[in-house]
Amino acid sequence: MTGDGTQDWDAYPPGTYVPPAPPPERWQGQWQGCGPPPAYGPPPGYGPPPGYGMPVLWQPAPLPWPHGPARPGVATAATVLGFVTGGLTALVSLFVLLAVSDGDDSASALLMLLGIPCAFAVIAGAAVLLQRGSPSLLFGGALASIGVLLLVWIVGASTGGADAAVGLLVFGVFALPLPVLTAVFARMPVVRGWAAAG
Question: I want to staple 179 with a disulfide (CB 3.0 to 4.6 A). Which of 73, 133, 145, 154 is the partner?
Fold first, then answer.
């Protein structure tokens, strides 16, 4: 370029002028920290609007059981009834054991001691079903409890007279519903299907 403002076309033809680069030290010091402009986006603290749930990749895989992953209410009822039935059976068996140790040697009292293994079977079956195991132990323990109650009533009615038969009948009316309901709930297809899918 000349001093009068015209371009010196002979020295630098159009498109060939390249300004000299600054020395490396000066380049590093002067331009350090420069780069592309920062990306624009939402201010900090903002994100996707709430209410859309988890992304599809984070959702758990559905269980093969057709009614969903949750425990059915009938299975919960069977478990709770199993614990209650087993606990009450163990408590009554403890009182009967105390009566037998005090000298009550009637056949019905001795047969009621069979409630102790039934109580353990029902409680263990309820614990197994609570962990989504097979309801067979709970069902078997409840059936055994029903069988023991019926056997006690038959033997007590045949050996103890009318008063003993009425007393055992009243006891059976209060004692039979819990193991019967436990056995019915443990044997329902929904409970068996849920336990088998686990």
Answer: 145
Write down the residue that tokens 């309820």 correspond to: 126
CA-closest candidate to residue 145, choices 95, 194, 190, 85 = 85
C-alpha–C-alpha distance, residues 81 and 78, integer Å: 5
Q: What span, in angstroms and rounded, lies between the C-alpha atoms of 120 and 149?
A: 16
* Global confidence as pTM: 0.64
Taking the chain, what is the end-to-end CA distance rounded to the nearest angstrom?
Answer: 88
The second-level CATH assignment, the architecture, of 73-197 is Up-down Bundle (1.20)
Q: Which residue type does 53 have?
A: G
Q: Summarize pLDDT for 14-30 with one digit per residue, the tens.
A: 666 666 666 555 444 44
Q: What's the token pair of residue 58? A: 């984070």
Show me where the domains of the chain are located.
73-197
Give pLDDT tens digits for 153-194: 888 888 877 777 788 888 888 889 999 999 999 999 989 988
195 and 129 Cβ atoms separated by less than 8 Å = yes
